[in-house]
């Protein structure tokens, strides 16, 4: 379900919007928010609720790993997009789960007319790191339907 109004979205965003995602702002077009659900170092899996304002998306990026690694997105509220390089975009809504293997170039974010949240799960692996790449262009984004 699309949510254009922040107040209505906040009521259904069960894991909370969190704080402005300032540490990673340079890798996003628009504003995002981060609510860590686990503490790094206390568990081998880091979970965070990431909230995107309408039209916000992250840059193209790759989760590198010598073995294991990657990312899982568990969509919790609003509507968004996920796209792998060379493939059509996949619409996201509450209940959608996306499994992203290591070494796959991709991006994700909100639809232009809806707030959106997902839980991001960093899959444990050996020698993992995220390589942030170029922004998703307005043309690439505006070509998406729905």
UniProtKB/TrEMBL annotation:
<dbReference type="Pfam" id="PF07883">
    <property type="entry name" value="Cupin_2"/>
</dbReference>
<dbReference type="InterPro" id="IPR011051">
    <property type="entry name" value="RmlC_Cupin_sf"/>
</dbReference>
<dbReference type="InterPro" id="IPR047263">
    <property type="entry name" value="HNL-like_cupin"/>
</dbReference>
<dbReference type="InterPro" id="IPR014710">
    <property type="entry name" value="RmlC-like_jellyroll"/>
</dbReference>
<dbReference type="InterPro" id="IPR013096">
    <property type="entry name" value="Cupin_2"/>
</dbReference>
<protein>
    <submittedName>
        <fullName>Cupin</fullName>
    </submittedName>
</protein>
<feature type="domain" description="Cupin type-2">
    <location>
        <begin position="50"/>
        <end position="113"/>
    </location>
</feature>
């Amino acid at each position: 379900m699309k949510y254009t109004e922040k107040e209505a979205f906040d009521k259904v965003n069960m894991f909370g919007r969190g704080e402005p995602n300032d540490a990673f702002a340079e890798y996003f077009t628009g504003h995002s928010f981060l609510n860590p659900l686990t503490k790094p170092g206390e568990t081998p899996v880091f979970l965070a609720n990431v909230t995107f304002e309408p039209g916000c998306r992250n840059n193209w990026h790759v989760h590198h790993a010598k073995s294991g690694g990657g990312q899982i997105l568990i969509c919790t509220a609003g509507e968004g997009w996920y796209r792998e390089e060379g493939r059509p975009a996949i619409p996201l809504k509450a209940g959608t789960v996306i499994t992203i293997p290591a070494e796959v170039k991709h991006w994700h974010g909100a639809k232009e007319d809806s707030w959106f949240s997902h839980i991001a799960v960093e899959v444990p692996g050996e020698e993992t790191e995220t390589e942030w790449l170029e922004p998703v262009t307005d043309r690439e984004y505006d070509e998406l339907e729905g």
